[in-house]
Design brief:
The complex is a heterodimer of chains A (about 550) and B (about 240). By secondary structure, chain A is an all-alpha fold. Chain A is built from 24 helices and no strands. Chain A folds into two domains: about 200 residues, no CATH class; about 230 residues, no CATH class. The longest helix of chain A has 30 residues. In chain B, helix 3 runs parallel beside helix 5. Chain B is globular and about 50 Å long. The chains are: A mainly alpha (about 550), B alpha/beta (about 240). Chain B: This is ABC transporter ATP-binding protein.
Chain lengths: ~550, ~240
Amino acid sequence: MKAILYMTRKSIKNWFLDLLRHPTKLVGVVLLVVIIGFSVLNVLFSSDYSESMGTLTESGVDIGILHGIYFLLLFFLGGAVILKGLKSGTTFFTMGDVNMMFCSPISPKSLLVFGLVRQMLTMLLMAIIFLVYGGMAKSIFDLTTAQAVILIISFFLFLIISQIVALFLYSTTNGKPKAISTAKYILYALILLPVVLILIPVIQNGFTLSSLYGALKSPAAEFVPLFGWMKGFTFGILSGNVITSVVYGVLMLLVVGLSLVFFMKADCDYYEDVLQNTETSHEMRQAVKKRGMNNTDAYLKNRKIRIGSKGLNGGKGASTFLFKHLLERRRSGYVLFWDMYSIIMIAVCGFVSFFIVYSGDDSEVLTSEATMLILLAMASYMQLFFSVTGDWARELSKPYIYMIPDSPFKKLIFASLTSIIKPFLDGVLLFVVAGIICSASPLVIISSIIVYTSFSCIYCMVNILTDRVLGFLSNQALSMFLFIMISLIAVAPGVILAFVIGAVSGAPLWLAACVCALWNFIVSLVLALICKNTLHNMEMPF
Amino acid sequence: MLQINYLTKEYGKVLANDNISFTVNDGEIAVLAGPNGAGKSTVIKCISGLLRFKGQIFIDGHPNKTVEAKRVFGYIPEIPAPFDVLTVEEHMEFVARAYSLSNYKERIEALLKRMELWDKKDKLGKELSKGMQQKLSVCCALLPQPKVLLFDEPFVGLDPHAIKELKNIFIELKQAGCSVLVSTHMLDSVEEFWDRCLILMNGRVVAERTRADIERNGEDLEDLFFKITEPQGSRL
């Protein structure tokens, strides 16, 4: 244990020293700390706050939405942690750990705990991004400061509990494929169960928004082990319901206690399982450091690829990159660029549009234009989080893009074109489907597609610009965070202008949105010109 | 011809290359030798245009980062980087198209057969062993028939047949009038065909010899290398 603590101490110290030697990284970290600090202060001091917790008051916004969002977060993040730990708890470690610590006389359980703690801290760092939304949640849902703080802390707590449960599951199932399958199915059932418990009252009481909110707030969903219990515990505290919070709190404590007890008793012979997964994970990390990886690469590494038809079928000079990317996407299992993200986005937006159109009473009816505008805003915002890396970033880790004899500007454009084509095709699918549901006019559908594509252009160029200006940051989370912030700043003027024009001139919403698209395209062009010689001045990461 | 004038490369405060100047003439094979961390790979990467640097580098009379220079040089990296989901043959097609080559199919077949990759032409990049990836790198670099070639540790990972074939390729390139620069630790592997040797240490060229110099002085290249790079009295 002493050796682990020594290694941890020295790693932290050397990380700080490295930060001082690299001013760009230091600026990024300071910026992150400032934003987190601002978010915390925003949560603590924004709007009027009360000293006492009180009960949840229902303002203009139904508190059921907060229940739903919190539940979703528990599932997506907490559930992902547990599933990941179950499937590949072996990626808690690095090759350095394998080579130096596994052969040493350190107990395997100590190592497993160390791996878990390190993993937990990384997760917490990434989850800090949710602090930014704390102040927003407070003002929208009329929460007191204490309530907002409790909500955030309980979410972080759940991430930690998820890691402990993942540790227990991994230690008891590793090396036993049947046990792993059983645990996975139980987990999937736990995730599906609340969906069913929420849908039943919605179907019984009518398919309306108010029945959905009611179902989200109902105690039934809190019966679901782990996820429901945590929600019950948290909202029990928030609403001042002592009995509920105590009951679910005790249940969660039991889960944690039993997980730890079983973990201590489990036979932890996991080194062989670790080896291959860690080697693969190491190669991926090296490639990520070199910016050679994006989601496609990580997905492809261990996947069986069907070759299908061969050959690039086009390309000369810089345009060869476009044809290569088309071939790679086809082999990655994409159909016309549509992938899992496309499905998720269409499912979420389709669900929302369906509810907006078919739920609510007559006084709440929105026009088709307004519905499409809401979807456009939602989809454009979601796109931001999925467009951090693209084919362009992947090319930078290989020498070809630097060496191929063509102008740097042409190589930049052709290598990043798929980052614009894909969102365009996603937009076509999404807005045509949504337009049919909402009975929107073709003009509204087409303008939505154009505006959505314009956002992809600007995100792509901001990505390239941040790489150029900030250089490559080895911390991917920090890099992503800065990309998101700069993108939001870049699109803000266009969005504001569109709203002002729409409100002042009385122009149709679709026309006002096109003003936003125009802004986005102009800014994208300017950024592309600024980055014209990026390749000429860049260094290949080694 | 490859001409390097006052090449300097800094990584922060570390001076990886310090005022390096040398020339590799047409039909000449130059070897960059030196201990680990001497800056050999950095020189190769600067010439390839993969790093920023101070100084001047001319390839066939053109600055190395110009399109004209890129058309005429090839680079074989130390660590091969194939595309995971492109087949061997598609890698070659990619290079042919990127370099706007014409009538390249026969040449692709000839190169792949020579490096014993023709029977693996439908294998994906991620399915290749390290040695095969290295051979593919060589094929891709040779396809555009460059006039200047840069090899960074080319023999690492190759089987004996491939090493023999690569040596034959070096001789053919020399006879065809190409300028070849090879960075290697394995001095004995380049013994038969080197024309100029530059020994680097701590980012500087500490010795430069031509084959004629060595033969005239009765020196042994390996002995010279050890004499220069080892501190006095440090041999075991």
